């Protein structure tokens, strides 16, 4: 979408920095914080910004939520169970608050942004001290200051959904891998999806801001950057700042590994495939959510591509990007989905052969177009279908994994293996988890290995 975003002004950012300093000087402020994150990578990255903001106020992170003075839940509302899980955990903390009255409980993220939710929190969750929506994240310092000085609950959900905040502090979870947001929001309105209502309109960061952030990550020794956006392919500000151009610029900068997500199949251009094919640092992996293999369901979902077009794009990717691995998202039990339409999803999965896939049972979301459709499927039908679909995904993935035995993969080592302390694990460029012999000194390094065997969801490799 060619919309020029509103950049949140320097004076507003300064106002927040002032509030952060004032909090740091308060005698009664919380000393420690713990953030519980639900949902997707965008939320995980938002939590890194929340952590950065809290540290700018002098708070320190604690790994245990029961010992923290402030617990912040960064929530997701993509499906009903995501929301229920978050609310269940928030309510659990209420018990703790009885024995620890100074405990502050905050809730933020997509669920809070959902229409009607702020009211519900106000009425039904009196023990929540602080609640704010996705568009208020940068105001955390002033909101917390208000809470601490006035001792009144603060609930703030803005409907201003076209702005971008630059220059906020970030505390990244990893030294070797980093998320970098390129665009915010979504204008696609897939009929089942709540995201456009809670993340606002599509807006892209300026390329110079993205490149400056990438430069500083590179200088700090980051090995892998994952570009984030709900639909990164539509990145752009109406100029020559397109997603393929951005990829090329990052590739030339020499970022060792570049990944990106999520790509919408309707916007997967030849230019993007070419950028992936030519780039020397762009990972040979694409997450390309298909959702369904049936044209009728795809149309009812407002996905704006057909099965044929999707398969054509997959063919072009496999032809031009050697050894590319594909992953996807799938929904079963969309309203009115027939047995035959579901079988088309299974057959598409068999045709493509994904490395892995996220499979979901359709969950009606209030306010979305699909929530108004008839033809809801009984739970047992959806459960049975998702079981069959998972088996089809696993068969394809096992075949793909077996096909990699004997090949060489470059693994970015992330951690010591949980099962065997003499092994480490990380991801190859295709995004598959690979284990190898090693120790703590390997963490953060990229190590070439030959794949020796395949297990469920992991490959075993040997250093070469
Ligand atoms: N922007 C990304 C991801 C969106 S959310 C994209 O377009 O792919 C991640 C996944 O959640 C979606 O791809 C979809 O498969 C699933 N999802 C979204 N809304 C859902 C709903 N109401 N019920 C079940 N699954 C849903
Ligand atoms: Fe939701 Fe569709 Fe946007 Fe993805 S592209 S966030 S599924 S509306
Ligand atoms: Fe959930 Fe919001 Fe992400 S609804 S999937 S956390 S954009």
Helix proportion: 25-40%
Mean of all residue-level pLDDT scores: 95
- What is the highest CATH level, the class of the largest domain? Alpha Beta
Hetero compounds? S-adenosyl-L-homocysteine, iron/sulfur cluster, FE3-S4 cluster
Terminal CA distance: 46 Å
- Low confidence ranges: none
Strand content: 15-25%
Q: What structural category do the secondary elements indicate?
A: alpha/beta
CATH architecture call of the largest domain: Alpha-Beta Horseshoe
Largest sheet: 6 strands, parallel
Number of helices: 14
Question: What's the total count of β strands?
Answer: 21
Q: What features would you describe in this structure?
A:
By secondary structure, the protein is α/β, with parallel strands linked by helices. It folds into 3 domains: 155 residues, Methylthiotransferase, N-terminal domain (Rossmann fold, 3-Layer(aba) Sandwich); 239 residues, pyruvate-formate lyase- activating enzyme; 56 residues, Beta Barrel (OB fold (Dihydrolipoamide Acetyltransferase, E2P)). The strands form 6 sheets. The protein has a 6-stranded parallel beta sheet, with helices on both faces. Strand 12, helix 9 and strand 13 form a beta-alpha-beta unit. Helix 8 runs parallel beside helix 9, helix 9 packs parallel to helix 10 and helix 13 runs parallel beside helix 14. The longest helix has 24 residues. The structure holds S-adenosyl-L-homocysteine, iron/sulfur cluster (SF4) and FE3-S4 cluster (F3S). The site of FE3-S4 cluster (F3S) has 12 residues, from helix 2 and helix 7.
